[in-house]
Amino acid sequence: MSVRKIGIIGENCFGAWRYTRTACRGVVLRGDEILLSYETRTGQYMIPGGGLEDGEDEAECCRREVEEETGVIVEPGACTLEIDEYYEDWKYVSRYFLCNPVGEGVRQLTEREAGAGMEPRWVSVGRAVAEFATHADYTDTDEMRRGLYLREYRALLALLMRLRPMVIDDYDRVYALWMSCKNMGFNDVDDSREGIGRYLKRNPDTCFVAEVGGALCGVILAGHDGRRGFIHHMAVAPDFRRQGVGQALVERALAALEAEKISKVALLTFKYNEAGNAFWERQGFTLREDLNYRNRALVELKRIDT
């Protein structure tokens, strides 16, 4: 099984590293809950795990560290994610394992962990994502927590984000997401519940939402007329931007259109939407300057611009 790698480069990175530390961390799930280590004296959460000892098997390191921190015995699966952090002349490697809880063991905290009042906490995945999403709040006050929370946030998105076909029951949450995004255009007919319902009925296999722990991360509408594909209203929730959510949605939609024998896909963005145009350029959508876009309303439409 391939291991996805994510790099995080700190502002104080020297550009090269002399030292490396490898840690193994366990993402332990129980229904819609995740096991975290919580420091009662600092209010800080983290995914349990710790340093790999000389000659130690990585899965065994994960198993040992989770038990020592939380008292939960786990069975790790294969490592599917590695996050490499670069600060000063250090490279910190975190290898993440999805784990199943299989029993109760004995906690053995280090002196530092005991001093911080570390204890295990089962919290909802959505709450964990929301907690780690606050990483930027610590930029000027707690650089260690900012880096830790950024790492754990990126890990949960990479490991737990789920893409699935959009259904009409998603409409209220999707519409709220659209309204929270700037520089997008809607109208009261095509983008009403009835209008989106018609679109989904015609394109049931090419429109997708992204979720993490039940929280809506993003949405993309894609469809075709049998000859050309078209993308509408791709949006990512503000707290989840620049984490690969938009790219994952685009790749899933394009794959779905290709499976339906569509050979070319188009989309529209407002010229003043600089962020949107830059995103689509990165996704390989080239700008056509040899065309005039024309349309004609068949019914009266009320514009809704965000």
Short description:
With 306 residues, this protein is α+β, with helices and mostly antiparallel strands. Helix content is 28%, strand content 34%. It contains eight helices and 15 strands.
Beta-strand share of residues:
25-35%
- What is the 3D form? elongated
Reported by name, the CATH topology of the largest domain is Nucleoside Triphosphate Pyrophosphohydrolase
The CATH class of the largest domain, by name, is Alpha Beta
Number of helices, counting only DSSP H or I runs of 4 residues or more: 8
| Uncertain spans | none
Q: Please provide the count of β strands.
A: 15
| Gyration radius from CA atoms, angstroms | 23 Å
Average pLDDT for all residues: 94
- The CATH architecture of the largest domain can be named as Alpha-Beta Complex
User: What composes the largest sheet?
Assistant: 8 strands, mixed
What features would you describe in this structure?
With 306 residues, the chain is α+β, with helices and mostly antiparallel strands. The protein has two domains: 4-160, Nucleoside Triphosphate Pyrophosphohydrolase, CATH 3.90.79.10; 162-305, 3-Layer(aba) Sandwich (Aminopeptidase), CATH 3.40.630. Helices cover 28% and strands 34% of the residues. The strands form three sheets. Strands 1, 2, 3, 4, 5, 6, 7 and 8 form an eight-stranded mixed sheet that branches. The longest helix has 18 residues, at 143-160.
Keywords:
Nucleoside Triphosphate Pyrophosphohydrolase, Aminopeptidase, 2 domains, 8 helices, 15 strands, 34% strand, elongated
